[in-house]
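This follows on from our talk about sequence and fold. Go ahead and set the record down below:
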Amino acid sequence: MAERLQEINQLSYQREKLISLGTMAAGLAHELNNPASAARRASQRLRSTLDEFDQHSSSMLKNFIFKPGIDVSGYPFQPLLDNRRLENFQLDSLDRSDKEDDLIGWLEERGIDDPFDMASAFVEVGYNKHLLASFSEKLLPDQVDNFLRWVHKETEMLRLAQDLQESTSRLQALVTAVKEYSYMDQGSQVQDVDLHRSLDNTILVLKHKWKHKNIQLIRDYSPGLPPIQAYGGELNQVWTNLIDNAIDAVPEKDGRITVRTFQDFTCTTTPTVAVGIQDNGTGIPEEIRNRIFDPFFTTKEPGKGTGIGLEISHRIVVGQHKGSIEVESAPGNTRFTVYLPVSLS
């Protein structure tokens, strides 16, 4: 009895810590929401302002840098614009190195004093030696170096603005996910929960753990899945525990986690939906499988697990939501399936 009482007290302490952390996270998300939104709007405005500035400055430049006889009535910089890549442009390391070497040699021949930095910036946005050399043939000889420096700084500004816009967009998406994840505006009450959005928010919140492993995430969501009545914040804790365990279980390379949703038509008493989280980790030995939902039982190394995640998940699903959790496990294939009624009434 004394040992059991100590376990209950420790479980209560851990739960209080989780509630405190959830409240703190919700408060931080609320405070960060306004500056994150403002930063994103400013980054979007910066990008559009730089594009407009590019148009105005190039319209002035075209009257002074091109050779006589070159038609500048339209937009003579269009070849550069057509080849510029600011988004989703990737090069393998060997191809990048070859293109940079070509540009460095050409820039050194022209006497450019910072060819390495300039060549790297040009290759970063998709420019190559052939493009810049052929375009430079249209320019006055004494204006080529100034033009190259202008293009270098222009592309750097646009690239930085693009990075800023992407970063602030990710920041706002994360803040929004944390707000929705914690259901901070709805309190501890039953609400209609979109399971797909709930799972996506949890995956985003846990994204920081994925960068240490090469994990392939597969979303196999059933279309038309109905919303369910649930305690949203508590249900997100279930997904957090199960996905976090899957991340820890998969191998360092070629890890695979599948998150699946479907309607369970085998239950005839009440409409039921299911969420399955499957991983290709080492699996759970059969001799301990019936103990995984016991308080403080863990197979993780000391300091890496408290042994209360699955117990809390079981209590939330079975006790609060009248559902069930099933587990199937073999080496390379472990699947937790959570069954939840659509309505709690």
